[in-house]
Hints:
Rossmann fold, seven-stranded parallel β-sheet, 8 helices
Amino acid sequence: MPRFADQVALVTGAGRGIGRAIAEAFAAEGAKVVVSARKAALGEQVVAKITKLGGQAALTVGDVSRRADIGAMVRAAERAFGGLDIVVHCAADAAMARVADMSDEIFDTQVHANIHSLFWLAKDALPLLVRAKHKGRLIYISSGAANRSFTPGLIPYMASKAYMNAFARGLANEVGRDNVLVNVVEPGLIASDRMREHLDETRAAKIAANFPVARVGQPSEIAAAVLYLSSPEAGYITGTTLLVDGGATMAPIVDFKDGI
């Protein structure tokens, strides 16, 4: 019997990278997956792959920086599969620039996508999660950057992820007696589409060589952590942050001599 055979999982940012790996992993374990993607074409590819392999999936297209789109994502889950057991919030904005060079508009987009969306998604999904077949699960994908002293060019992103961690801890306390567990997964340097937008493979490998586990991580490794926190085995875990980074936050940060 697959671990999530009778459950519905909504994954934001599921059109590519880590979000896609999480959606596909849930489907492989029997969950009915609501694939939320900003670009329809990417989401359609994920849904097609899941259904081709015998799974069940539905697509909802939207941008987590928009209030109405968040509500539509949750309604899509209820409409497609009748409820919601697991929510994984992976979508985020990560504009890379020095603070002095960043426009107000770009900063504001990050605030909406990375901070406001936490509140919107929780508010809309909790009425369904409290009625989950097992304990409802709300899992936020944060970042090891929230624990670092400095990652060049990502100060607003880092700050938003630190906010996410605090929000999740507080929410876990608030809804623990309402049948909902709230946790955070913090990826390190992962070979995702987003990483490749900022780093080529050679530079990523050079940075990772400084880690205790001296390699770049894989999206599937983040998916494995999410599935564990969603499983019955993790039924006594809430309000915690699981760091999946190969020990990167214990390592000295290498010099970024060529800037950002």
